[in-house]
Amino acid sequence: MSTETSRLLPKSDQINPLSGKTIIVSGAGTAGLSFAKGILELWPSNLPPPKVKLYERDPRDLPASRGNYSIGLRSDKLSGGLQALKKLNLLDQVLAACVPNSDKNGSIRDHNWEDLVHFRVPDNPPDGLPVANVRITRNSVRETMIRALPETVEKNFDVQCVSARRSEKGGMDVKLSGDDEKEVYCDLLVVADGASSKMRRALRPDDGLKFIGASLITGNAFFEPGKVPPYVEDSFGPVIGGQGTGLVVFPIDDRSCVWFITHRSKEPRTPISGEKALAMKDEIMAEVRSRGAVFGERLEVLLQATEMSSLKIFNAQDKRPISHTDIESEPVVYIGDASHAVSPFAGNGMNMAIMDGYSLSSALCNATSIAEAVKEFDKESVPRCTKAWRISHIVLRIFHAKGIFLWLVVRILRSLFWLIGGRKK
Asked: Where would I find the FAD-binding domain in this sequence (predicted)?
């Protein structure tokens, strides 16, 4: 526990209800790892800490093909991911693992790759941060956070929480994967097992993901070191085709990038990845070239460099955040995508997950009751995540804008960015 960040409760006679108790964290993604780090990093130094047990279905070390795409970490008011990392004493380690030179300006561009709106990185990052935004691969965040976990965290990889029920002891009995279907007890269950949360399906079967009317095709392009095209490295953001199709390209490192072609769809498509996508590579690439013809030679350069095994088709889905109204009868808290999955159009999922992990751990460290702590967490998290959810639906419409709607969008965005100090070209 850090001396700098460990805190005392406001009154010495207050006892934290989780002192010496057991917390199970279901899922070692960004949200779960942030929480596991935060609950012990911020724990009052005058009280025995809780026992934290982390269960993750995936192995400790993931193959390079898993999570090998970059995600933005930001410092704006809606995101706050970098500020939360700083409070968790993780900022320096995460910045060291970021995509090189990724603290750059962003743009919304037209099909000719010309800027419609150009928004700049603040000259003075907020809250004493060294940078205002960066990009990092999901794998790098995961590895950095796992290494930073306190030694007292019990880490269980290749073991999944599959269901739970209220225990006679007052907490939750959690069933684990495996032939023996072992049950373990906890006083608080933190569900952080992602957008397709198995625990959420078990405990809240009617609270699932919803298709939001768009499908995406994606792939990873690889180049010689230092040869990533400049139009990928110089600025980040969507390219609007103006015919109902959008394109996004992000660098992974100095020799690779990931691209997404997105289109409207009335019904969800059959997801395709792995060996099936490889077998259908010619058909998939033909569709990408057809839908992305408006983006010209620059897209073709990316397609020529694409690793066929990385191709994937998936649907944009999301869900509204969970409000924990029955925490006293069921001590379960949902964080990250398990609570409020957002589509790729939000561009904010990792920031929200880190904020959730920090916000919940901070509230619990100062708690006189679990119910009050979760109430404080919801008070901060639900409005923040609902706003991000709403913005993602607006962004979805912008991605696929065409005709008079596109004309209006461009002018509104330029006016807004001018008002807040952005820059247009």
From this structure: 173-367
Over 90: is that where the pLDDT of 76 sits?
no
Burial of 288 (0-12, 13-18, 19+ CB in 10 A): buried
CA distance 179 to 196: 23
Q: Residue type at 156?
A: N
Alpha-carbon separation of residue 27 from 267, 279, 326 (angstroms): 30, 32, 22
Intra-chain end-to-end CA distance of the chain, in Å: 49
Other Cβ atoms within 10 Å of 280 Cβ, number: 16
74 closest CA partner among 103, 100, 99: 103
Helix axes 403-419, 370-399, angle to 10 degrees: 130
What the chain holds in terms of domains, given with CATH numbers, is 22-103+128-209+320-395 (3.50.50.60), 210-318 (3.30.9.30)
Mean pLDDT of all residues in 222-241: 82
The two most distant CA atoms of the chain are separated, in Å, by: 69
Nearest to 48 by CA among 91, 6, 90: 6
How many CB atoms within 10 Å of residue 366? Answer: 18
At 6-20, the pLDDT tens digits run: 444 444 456 899 999
Residues 6+ apart with CB under 8 A from 179: none
Distances (CA, A) of 170 to 114, 119, 324: 60, 52, 17
For the stretch 149-198, pLDDT in tens is: 999 999 999 999 999 999 999 999 999 998 777 999 999 999 999 999 99
